[in-house]
Amino acid sequence: MKKNTVSAFLLLSLGLVGLTASAQTTPEAKAKITSRYNQAEISKVRAELKDYNEKNHKRTLELAEANGWPLMLEYKKGQYSYLSGVTDLDEPIYKASDNNFGPSSSTITARVNHLRSGGSLGLDLEGQGMVVGMWEIGGPLTSHEQLVGRITSGDNGTAFNGSTQDALNSSGHATHVAGTLIGSGNGDVTAKGMAPQATLVAYNSNQDNIEALDAATEDGLLVSNHSYGIPLANAASWMPGAYSSESRQWDQVLYAAPYYQAVISAGNDREAEENDILIGNKTSKNPIIVAAVDGVANYNSPNDVDMSDFSSYGPTDDRRVKPDISMKGVAVHSAYPAGAAGSSTFGSGYAELQGTSMASPGVAGALLLWQQHYMDLHEGTPMRAATLKALMINSADEAGSFPGPDQKFGWGLINSKKAIETMNGAGETSIVEELVLNPGETYTRQIIVQGDQDLRVTVVWTDPAGTSTTTANDPTIKLVNDLDVRVKASGDIFPYLPWGFGDFLGFGAVKADNIRDNVEDVLVEQTEITPGTYTITVTHKNTLQGNQPQQFSLVVNAVTDELNVRDSQYNNVSIYPNPATDVINIQLGSGVQGTEGSVVMYDLQGRIVRQFNTLVDKVDVSSLNSGMYILNIEYDGYTESKKIMVK
């Protein structure tokens, strides 16, 4: 093949084409997100990625020509990978979609059905006004009935409208993933996606790092999906489990854009029970890596979660917990181009596929809805990606043979219902806080625990990028800022410790000092709890990078706000309906005598939105913006606080 032909192919496959911008939602919403970023740090990371990508592209052209490398490889029967670059040791990198061609819906497995209209939480979260990013090997069929009118191209050459069979081969995967993310349900309600009213920006999978940085920091992108990677059959021997240049680059991107969360499929390279086969950005610290399991119709115990027969296992070479979370990736029903081989046009069809490619968009779509709800509660301000991840871990259902995380299922099965309940309970039954740890500082917080369920304390931080390696099985720890979390009951001598991997994976994780993960998750089982006061402390080892503060997110379930603890005789107020659209009814119990008192309603910024100097029985909320409010009812020297959701 002549060099100019190789160059033309790689200009497309490496994505070295023009970039067009798309807004997250409104210009105001985009500005609210992007104004929070450190533009000097972003410029530095962008310049480093641009230099690396251009040099790598040039070197790939030279080596492909000199060595006669094929541009496409059949690494499994009927499955192809494409030349996308070279390693730091000048070895070819071939990437492919993480599908594995081969009844409980993804929506039910992730408990997203509880978030929709008619669900148990009284919400209507379908991605209204939200945008998700999707990087793929090919482009989705934008004219598909599930997707039409809701996909824009983030770079040139990604959209597919049905012209050639070759294009169909790569478009099928992208269309299926897009359908799982945002399928409308039009034409086939069983193919409805996780966020059926969201819009999607589609990108070519190469040059993904710098495109993702720009999408996050210029367009306010909050969540993206990446269902592709380097197949084990194509990887150099040192790559499985290694913290490579690609791993480092994705940590750089997410550290520079701390509100942006990339969600990445774990890969489908397992044939038996092989550990340590995650490759490339699947070993990064800050992205969320997704394992594929069978669908779960009704979770009752870890035995309800069955691992697929292909999902790649971790951990990383430095024994970090990867993958992060599990989701349905078997027999996933979604949009797919319809058309026979040799056809010149393709229409709206459907297919059931399996792979971590199918699991990853289920998680990305769910997380987009969580961001939507958080923004509804906080006047359009999103949560940090670390908060999103902390919620995901804290609310996950146990999976696997042993308590705690493992190298197969990660932290467990995603549970959107529990995550939203944790958000809604913040300040009363849970804690969701975004904090900063200064150098040499100790953060301390006391909580009251009743012991009616397990106590889980989760801290997550977006960690600076570590030093990459090209050495096989390099155990060098990649954690840069090592935060420590301890939980101690009043009167106890020894604290409860976080989960982490020990030297032997056969019996699961252990509770010990975690020196590897940018996650600290402390579980106190209900049987261990003595009701009373518990103290949470967060410290750090050594020196924080650059002697600069480290942001972290704290999520705690099963707490009691002391300010709202009342003797049962004073629990005399009922509020309904909640959520409400027009009027809130206040029912006062027999313990309340007369009408002396007050009713005051606040938004989450502490501003009074309704105020009455007597005990009224109705509050009109029809003119209020959707979101969470606090209603304080004062009587007989007592104040009862109620959280109110206005739809």
TrEMBL record:
Pfam families associated with the record: Peptidase_S8, Por_Secre_tail
Entries under InterPro entries matching the protein: Galactose-bd-like_sf, Peptidase_S8/S53_dom, Peptidase_S8/S53_dom_sf, Peptidase_S8/S53_subtilisin, Peptidase_S8_Ser-AS, Peptidase_S8_subtilisin-rel, Secre_tail, TagA/B/C/D_pept_dom
Signal peptide from the UniProt entry: 1-23
Residue ranges annotated for the Peptidase S8/S53 domain, each copy included: 155-412
Record has 4Fe-4S as a keyword: no
GO term, biological process aspect, one: proteolysis
GO molecular function: serine-type endopeptidase activity
Domain Secretion system C-terminal sorting intervals: 575-646
Keywords assigned by UniProt, alphabetized: Hydrolase, Protease, Serine protease, Signal
NCBIfam families reported in the protein's UniProt record: Por_Secre_tail (TIGR04183)
Similarity field: Belongs to the peptidase S8 family.
PANTHER family: CELL WALL-ASSOCIATED PROTEASE (PTHR43399:SF4), SUBTILISIN-RELATED (PTHR43399)
Protein's recorded name: S8 family serine peptidase
Natural source organism: Flavobacterium alkalisoli
